Amino acid sequence: MILDSIVVGAGPAGLTAGIYLGRFRRDAVIFDSGDSRAAWIPTSHNHPGFPDGVGGIELLARIRTQAERYGAVVRKAVVEDLEVDELGFRAVVEGKDLFARTVLLATGVSDNEPPLPGVEAAVRQGLVRICPICDGYEAMDQRLAVIGAGAPGAREALFLKTYSNQVNLIHVGEPGDLPDPDRRDLMEVGIDIIETGVERVVLDNHQISALCLGPGEPRRFDIIYSALGVEPRSELAVRLGARFDDDGRLYVDDHQQTSVPGLYAAGDLVRGLNQISTAQGEAAIAATAIHNRLREIDATKKARPGFPGRA
Question: pLDDT tens for residues 150-164?
């Protein structure tokens, strides 16, 4: 048997694609590796439809329930390899071959974690955050520190000035990594640049109670933002020769198709906004494009008697 589509990743993008593919009456399987970045979110207040906020785990459960209601199949497994096949793709899952006419990658990105002990627990408590677009509003007028290096760290610190006048940049790169124009921009708006490594951090349930930055008195902050970047999980696509940019994110067309025909991508591994609503919109576009592609293929098969198929 050959599936209509394999969806790799069960975060907001992959599960949303499952809703659409199920409602298009397509045979699709979503593979869940169990490490969706969305599960780390304590509460999101900027996701449409949830004015009181929604936790990442709850949101994933809701989307999955909706996808399964329309026939989507979610399997807890890792897609180990992916190859182009005669009529589509061959995926290796738990050592076994699985065939599909199309594939949608919704594998997301991995965060470069800040050098802090207990960082996962701190993220779940909202003390260490990774997305000022998502929750900068909730950091209003608090004492903020950005851990970053070079221009990206400076940009995030400047962005957070939208919400607080108490912003510090803990620069963990070499002094020469921070360009002079960025230094001037930070100084002009009153952002303190701290260029001492983080030696120890003390967390409690409400704040970063002490952040020891080498010699001297410890500094105290309410929230730390990590601006150390991410690594797109694009390995499967890259092995197939899909084009990607300097940051490792995949190039896609207006229908979310990569440079490999029949291979689609949606969510954080495509562009750098890293927003759930964006990922879901891209998944809807990709799933619709997959459905239309398969309709065209099926129409061609009907017009060409004897067209090969796989039972």
Answer: 999 999 999 999 999
